[in-house]
From TrEMBL:
The chain crosses the membrane at residues 189-213. Coiled coil: none annotated. GO terms for molecular function: kinesin binding. Pfam families: KAP. This is Kinesin-associated protein 3. The lineage of its organism: Eukaryota, Metazoa, Spiralia, Lophotrochozoa, Mollusca. GO terms for cellular component: axoneme; ciliary transition zone; kinesin II complex.
Length: 276
């Protein structure tokens, strides 16, 4: 028995990912069910014919006709996902990481735990019974928002807490709202919230809600923004480096370059956490 589930876009390819549940039942001699097993599966549908001038309505119908796992009632959703795929820039995760890591600055080989870097560090052990308290922090000033998200991240990193956290609609909605409104204002905040949803995404039962809130689309927007920021940082650093090289009295310009380099390294390290 096959039961259809949520549909999402593939993170790097022009393809749709269909989640479904496969249920197998072993019958006894009398035909009675004796043993049943359920398995969560995924099917990747590559949309090779998708291009700038594609008729998305027709293409969506073709996808549904070829994949019986997708119910015809999901035609508008498939069409919307195809529209996103068509307009998504050709940026794979590997290209993103290579682009950011391509700087000559030496970075750590292994990213630090996002819960314990710079502004996200908290000297407190989170407790699942204090979720309401952490939720209130999400409505306070930015430092409290960062702390509240860091504590929620501690909880989310324990799979035993995920179900209870996810069933708290107020917490999930607040995290989504915060990510949409504040990601440009605080990299620490964005790191924590994205990592929380990454923890949720490890289990397919949470995929439908993640898709509903368009977390994947928002993450791609954040990545593109961060790449532009990285280019600006690098251009500015190169200008100061050239200025230091041509200046005969290098003391001041060299100091300026050294300070900028140190700042650049810190920014890239934090960006590495966000894009990993």
């Amino acid at each position: 028995k096959v039961k259809g589930g949520s549909i999402d876009v593939h993170p790097t390819e022009k393809a749709l990912v269909v989640n479904y549940e496969l249920e197998a039942t072993i019958l006894g001699e009398m035909g009675d069910p004796m043993l049943g097993e359920r398995k969560e599966c995924q099917k990747v549908i590559r949309v090779k014919g998708l291009h700038e001038n594609s008729d998305l309505s027709t293409l969506a119908k073709e996808v549904i006709e070829k994949c019986k796992l997708i119910h015809p009632s999901k035609l508008p959703e498939v069409e919307q996902l195809l529209y996103y795929l068509k307009n998504r820039k050709e940026t794979t995760v590997s290209k993103v990481v290579t682009h950011v890591m391509g700087a000559k600055t030496k970075l750590s080989d292994k990213p630090e735990d996002p819960a314990f870097i710079d502004g996200t560090e908290v000297n407190e052990v989170a407790n699942i019974n204090d979720v309401d308290e952490y939720l209130e922090m999400l409505y306070d000033d930015l430092p409290d928002k960062i702390k509240g998200c860091a504590l929620l991240l501690q909880l989310a990193r324990n799979p035993d807490n995920l179900e209870e956290l996810f069933q708290n609609e107020t917490v999930v909605s607040a995290l989504v709202r915060l990510l949409k409104e504040e990601w440009k204002n605080s990299t620490d905040l964005a790191i924590n919230i994205i990592y929380i949803f990454f923890c949720f995404s490890s289990f397919s039962s949470f995929h439908a809600v993640i898709l509903h809130f368009k977390i994947g689309t928002l993450c791609m927007t954040i990545i593109q923004h961060e790449l532009k920021k990285h280019d600006l940082w690098q251009d500015e650093l190169n200008k100061k480096k050239k200025a230091a090289e041509v200046d005969k009295n290098k003391s001041k310009t060299q100091d300026d370059y050294d300070k900028s380099l140190k700042k650049y390294e810190g920014l890239v390290r934090k960006q590495e956490q966000l894009l990993r």
